[in-house]
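FORM 7B - TANDEM STRUCTURE REPORT

SECTION 1: FIRST PROTEIN
SEQUENCE AND TOKENS:
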Amino acid sequence: MAAWSEEELRRISEADDLHVSPFREDGITYGTPTWVWCVVVGDAVYARAYNGKASRWYQAAVRQGAGRVTVAGMTKEVTFEPVDGPIQDHIDDAYRAKYRGSPYLAPMIGPRARAATVKIMPRDTTD
């Protein structure tokens, strides 16, 4: 299983430019890149959909389970996994630390966005 390097996690944690592109229904074509807030907790990257589970990118990410992200000058093939449970509190803390002062912070740590959290991990593309 692929993992983020420490350097990649550092760059991502400092960046504010993550674009997600889950696969379309064909499982080959990437969807339109969507800018989202992301945070790093432990060895993983997490993102939330501001509009909750109704967000198109979130629905595609959960349905397809894979795609690509562009962040901090990197383009990576990734997997998307829905997240729930105690890790959510750590993700909230990371959002508070990274985006403090933003008028969008409260909705991003609220129930609607929390319900639409995905874990983003690099995907091994070697056969």
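SECTION 2: SECOND PROTEIN
SEQUENCE AND TOKENS:
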Amino acid sequence: MSSADTRSRPGPGWLRPVVAVAGLAYLALGIAGFLTPETAAAGHETSRAVWIFSTTPMLNFVHTAVGVLGLLAATRRTGSIIYCWVLFVGFAGMTAYGVLATAFETPEDPVNVNWADNWLHGLTAVAGLVLAIVATRALTRSAATR
């Protein structure tokens, strides 16, 4: 086996760009939320929105952190796979919280999600799960054929 064979690791080469795009999208959403004037700390009546998504400092921080972590994870294939699993678990939890918080609408809710946020977080969780499973299977198949 030559040194070129040991350095080349086949696997899901498409995953890193996908993770980078997801990271950029969440980073843009988080930064746009911070730049929205009069971002409300709590309360459904006074909240502002970026596009159709609600903004609060906590939600903006979460979106910005997810974006930065996505860009960092996109530098390595293994980091990208781990990031997809973390997206699934984290955003599945945020979706569950968001559905309950939106259904009961308490003004003291610090996250202040709306239904558009719930859909975004739910679709992100599903996308993270699908990407993680497909990438892990592709990596396992490529390791088995070596």
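SECTION 3: OBSERVATIONS ON SECOND PROTEIN
Residues 8 and 142 are 11 Å apart (CA to CA).
The mean pLDDT is 85.

SECTION 4: SIGNATURE
Preparer initials: ____
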